Recover the amino acids of this structure.
């Protein structure tokens, strides 16, 4: 009775492998090769996950180290990816103070950084200090509102239309077209449109 070096579980797995033909043991061994996780392990970990997903529900139960070794490795990798992405976006945000005074000419650059920040996951955003970005966006919003207020007063100042109003009407139209759809809701488009129509008749 001392010659049996296989446990019941080993025999069970051997029988199962014969029946299924699935490479369970190589997958188990592959998982066991995962040591301290680095970003270089990304391809290996993703490959293991894909391989595991192809198994039947029953065969998955034979991959004993999936939850004890692989899942913690997957979580560790995700934490590293989160930290890397957060650091990349943080570096972009940290360029904002060096831009000097925030003006509307810099809006495109600020929006590009905002786009990168918004693309982060909730976990990644939690690792980023977005204060400089938020301050810059608030400044941009205030500057745009100044333009909107100017446009509102420009349209309100249009009385009976004469040829002398042409520059003001053209300026108003250019400003209106520059606004976002949401911002246009603040503006009296009906009056602007009527002024353009009246100008064409002159």
């Amino acid at each position: 009775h001392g010659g049996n070096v296989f446990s019941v579980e080993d025999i069970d797995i051997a029988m199962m492998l014969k029946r299924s033909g699935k490479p369970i043991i190589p997958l188990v061994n592959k998982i066991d090769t995962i040591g301290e996780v680095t970003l270089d392990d990304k391809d290996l970990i993703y490959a293991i996950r894909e391989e595991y997903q192809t198994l039947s529900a029953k065969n998955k139960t034979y991959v004993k180290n999936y939850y004890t070794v692989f899942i913690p490795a997957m979580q560790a990798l995700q934490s590293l990816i989160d930290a890397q992405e957060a650091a990349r976006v943080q570096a972009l945000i940290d360029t904002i103070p060096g831009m000097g005074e925030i003006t509307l000419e810099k809006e495109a650059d600020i929006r590009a950084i905002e786009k990168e920040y918004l693309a982060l996951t909730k976990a990644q955003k939690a690792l980023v200090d977005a204060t400089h970005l938020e301050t810059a966006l608030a400044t941009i919003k205030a500057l745009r509102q100044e333009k909107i207020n100017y446009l509102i007063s420009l349209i309100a100042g249009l009385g009976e239309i004469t040829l002398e109003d042409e520059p003001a009407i053209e300026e108003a139209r250019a400003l209106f077209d520059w606004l976002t759809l949401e911002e246009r809701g603040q503006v009296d488009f009906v009056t602007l449109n009527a002024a353009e129509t009246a100008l064409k008749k002159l």
Remarks:
- The mean pLDDT is 91.
